[in-house]
Amino acid sequence: MLATVLALLLLQNPPPANGSQPPPRPAAAGHRVYLCGGSRSFAYHASPRCEGLAWCTTGLRTATVAAATKEGRYPCGRCRPAR
To answer: What would the pLDDT profile of 9-27 be if each residue is shown by its tens digit?
Structure first.
């Protein structure tokens, strides 16, 4: 079952073809990002489907980039949200 979930996540968010990181997404006014509610979560994400959120069991919430940064969160290295 876990393998199926991971395979579906990869189909929705395939890695770049040349192995490089995708460019950061441009920030828009009021741009919202996704956060895992767990106390051990430190990144913010561009999409609720990011593989970095696959293990989040404490629920997702949204915040602005500024609010996430103020909480000490940093951009996810997988989905590369706006900074």
So the answer is: 554 555 555 555 555 554 4
